[in-house]
Amino acid sequence: MNPISLFCILAGVTLNACAQLLLKAGTNAVGHFEFTRANILPIGIKLATQWPIIGGLACYVVSVAVWIVGLSRVDVSIAYPMLSLGYVLNAVAAWYLFGEVLSVQRLIGIGIILVGVFVLARS
């Protein structure tokens, strides 16, 4: 994989991870909610007007465009598993930004993911 291809794949993964984090920040601002007939419109409007959610959706749009460019250069059997790096990015960022727990079990899982991506990238 050449540097441009790697950049496209990693940029797509990073943008996707950022989208998830922004969506979480937006839902945190709204708080816990249940969709019911009575509140689907007010909650929907509240969610749709949160800047982090709008930013997260924009990240998804850009990530799809970058991902398509990456897929034009890299075999899908290599590119798609690279998306698992998003799990690593999100776990670490959620710990840092939202105070989520990084237990030993989660850290072992992250290590397994990293080993898998390393083996895949070397193939």
Q: In terms of structural class, how would the helical and strand content be classed?
A: mainly alpha
**Average pLDDT metric:** 93
- Gyration radius, to the nearest Å? 17 Å
Number of domains as seen in the coordinates: 1
Give the N-terminus to C-terminus distance in angstroms: 10 Å
Which blocks of ≥5 consecutive residues have pLDDT under 50?
A: none
Summarize the amount of helix as a percent range.
over 70%
Distinct helical segment count: 6
Assembly classification: single chain
Instruction: Write down the secondary-structure element order.
Output: HHHHHH
Please outline what is shown here.
With 123 residues, the chain is mainly alpha-helical.
Q: What can you see in these coordinates?
A:
- The structure is a single chain.
- The protein is mainly α.
- The protein has one domain.
- It is built from 6 helices and no strands.
- The longest helix is centred in the N-terminal third of the chain and has 28 residues.
- It is globular, with a radius of gyration of 17 Å.
- The protein starts with a helix and ends with a helix.
- The mean pLDDT is 93.
